Amino acid sequence: MIKSRWVFLKRPDNLTEKQGSKLAELLKHNLKTVKSYLLKEEFQLFWAYASPYWVELFLDDWCAKTMRSKIEPMKKVARMLRNHRRLLLNWFWAERRFSSGVVEGFNNKAKLTTRKA
């Protein structure tokens, strides 16, 4: 476990060969750290869904699984996701049609007003 923090934080496709072998060795053990890592990697699938219906099912299932994990920091994340569930699902219901251009324009105007003051 010594010096393995970055192995867990990096995405698997960004790991070097040495880090990949270290990760494979760590995954053989049934540690809380490994369970947390696997939950984190599983959640990455959330962003791959295109259908709001399937995203909703995935989110509910992932949060339920995480709440049963007995890992308090991960349970905290699951509670936070449940609290913001509607906002997360809105992104999928909008079908990614809206850009942040309007918000960026408003922020730019606010910045200009602040500079002039």
TrEMBL record:
Instruction: Identify the taxonomic lineage of the organism of origin.
Output: Bacteria, Pseudomonadati, Pseudomonadota, Gammaproteobacteria, Candidatus Kentrum
Read off the Pfam families from this record.
DDE_Tnp_ISL3
Query: InterPro entries, alphabetically?
Result: Transpos_ISL3 (IPR047951), Transposase_DDE (IPR002560)
The name under which this protein is listed is Transposase
Show the PANTHER family listed in the entry: TRANSPOSASE FOR INSERTION SEQUENCE ELEMENT IS1557 (PTHR33498:SF1)
Recorded superkingdom: Bacteria
Ranges where the Transposase IS204/IS1001/IS1096/IS1165 DDE domain occurs:
3-117
